Each structure stands twice: as structure tokens, then as C-alpha cells.
Amino acid sequence: MERARPLPTRRRLLQSAALAAVPYALLPDARAGAQVQAVDHPSAEWQPATTANYTGHTGTPRPAGRPVDRVIIHVTQTAYAATLSIFQNPRKQVSAHYLVRSSDGHVAQSVRESDVAWHAGNWEYNTRSIGIEHEGWVDRPGCFTDVMYEASAGLTAAICTRHGIPKDRAHIIGHDEVPGTDHTDPGPNWDWARYLRLVNLV
Q: Quick count: other Cβ atoms within 10 Å of Cβ 47?
């Protein structure tokens, strides 16, 4: 049996009216706590891809015999916000674990590391790798900023540590090195020597 609800007091009515007048933009994000818990990389922001764009294994290991042993470097060929929109569009059938912004090195995580993102264009490589997208275009070297290199290198170093991946060019590869791909990223303007040096400084 439902208990009778007490009538609201004048104070409660005033508080409710005041709260209703506060713009929603000023209220705390109800998902803020969940966003912090969701990320694998502490400084990343959780910007989830739609579940239609990756293979989920959250809470359980990846498929048996498929330990993570590669980090694959990508370049988006579009803007940061547009990339997140693509990951969130179920018709696109693509995602990456992380996205690094050009202007300030901000890192977004879109797929958990325990899940298989669809980024490599090769299922075998998808199941055993972490994909990192970088905002920019392969023919615009100015997109590859100092802060982007530094943030991405820190991310890659942490991924390698978490998964026991050697920090070398055999295990940190470009999308263009994936067998069967027709992609050219990260392209000739990506400074591999600098990147690997930064990864190994962390």
C-alpha cells in the first residue's frame, strides 16, 4: 500500500522554483562520475562510440589467444569533433580506442581497451591492438603539434606498460603498415623518430 505523501513546505516550493530557474548548463553533469570511472587512461575524457561500431568484451578478457601486442597510429583526415561524431554514428561501422586533439593534445577515449575497436581494416590486427587516432591530415604537417606528439606519446607509453608491449617500431606501427589496408596514414609527415623517442622517455 502506498504511503500518503506529505504536502510540500513553502521552503521546498521556493527551492524547487529557484532550481527550475537555473540554466541546465550550470548544473553538474550527472554522468561526470561515470566518465571518470570509464576511462583506461587517467587523463582521457570518456566520449563513447556507439556499441554498433566495436566488439564489446567489457569486464572480460579479449578473445582467447588475442593479447594486445600492438599500438596502431592513425590520422583522422577530418576534425576532432567530426571524428567523435563518426564514432557515434552506427552507420559508419568504425571506431578507435583513443583520439588526440591537435590544438592542445586533449585525449578522448571512445572504446575500452578490453573491447575491440574497428580501426585497422584487418580483423586479426583489430583483435590484438589499441588504435589511436590523431586529429589532422596526412598532407598538413602543421597538424602534428608538439602538444599532440607529447600527449600521444604519453598515452602510447602507458598502453605499452599496461599490456607489456615493447616500445619499438615493431609494435608501435602506422595504419599504413597493417596488411591488406589501403590507408596511407599517418603518412610521411609523421615523425617516427621523434615519436618513439618521446614514448621511451616516459
A: 20
